[in-house]
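Standup notes, structure subgroup. Blocker cleared on the dinuclear copper ion input:
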Amino acid sequence: MLLWILQKLTVVMAQADSFMPTQGTEIAKSVDNLYAFLLVISLVSCVIVIGGMIYFAIKYKRKSANDVTAYITHDTRLEILWSVIPLILFLFVFAWGWVIYHDMRTMPKDALEIHVTGKQWAWTAEYKNGVKSTEVVVPVGRDVRLILAAEDVLHSFYVPSFRLKQDAVPGRYTNLWFHADKLGDFHVFCAEYCGTQHSGMITKLRVVTQEEFDQWLTTESEVSTLPMAQRGAKIFQTRACASCHSVDSPAVKVGPSVYKLFGDTNVELLDGTKVTADENYIRESILNSQAKIVKGFGPRSAMPAFQGQLSEVEVTALIEYIKGLK
Ligand code: CUA
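Run returned:
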């Protein structure tokens, strides 16, 4: 009976995305099985305890004023029974959990290594050939190990579909591994409160075929040899600048538009002063967005500071791209 419920429950859990996120790895399935087991055991215990309580409350309800309660002393057999059975169950759950955890924490040899860095408030994945990406792209059916680091404060790399979560800690490396067996895009969250934009520290983990992966890696590394403005356009995309700044109209998104920005001699700042949008202004705004905040976007800029995140070459490429937006 118990096994039957367990089996049904895991099937339901596997299918229902609304209840649990898609199972993207084998580990996710083992975690869900253990979870289903805990759920069933808890339900059964709940029925026995609460049901028993209600049953006895009704059965032994005082029927009249001179209804005397019988003298009840303890029963050793019962005591042993309700101590030993839960103990066995708990030890069993512990052992089961330990086996899964051991699997999760034993890094496979020959895994594809990707360096992932957390920074207020974005993730950057860096590949061995130098490609940097805001999304983590991995090949399907292969052991992947992520080496995590943090540049400022604690972050936590969390992939619900993989049932994986690992802190990224400043000053040391941490790691996690997975073997994705499903193609698709999976959510990545930051699961450690890291400042005002913590909830926006989201990215995608894209599981693609080995061919797509190789193709992607080559294309990305070719970007570094593109003409400046084109490379700037690419960086504008990969660093997600486009999600806050429009490039083809003066429309305001989260931040000011960069369309026809370059050369504007009339950029009004928060304190009322006016500046010219030249190379140095744009450079400063990219590297330290708090320095000169455009009127209407204060009191603090929501843009992350890219100091130390972008190389000189990348900043220049971005400026060249913005110059061309007219
Ligand atoms: Cu990074 Cu929360």
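Discussed briefly. The two ends are 70 Å apart (CA to CA).
Next: hand off to the docking folks.
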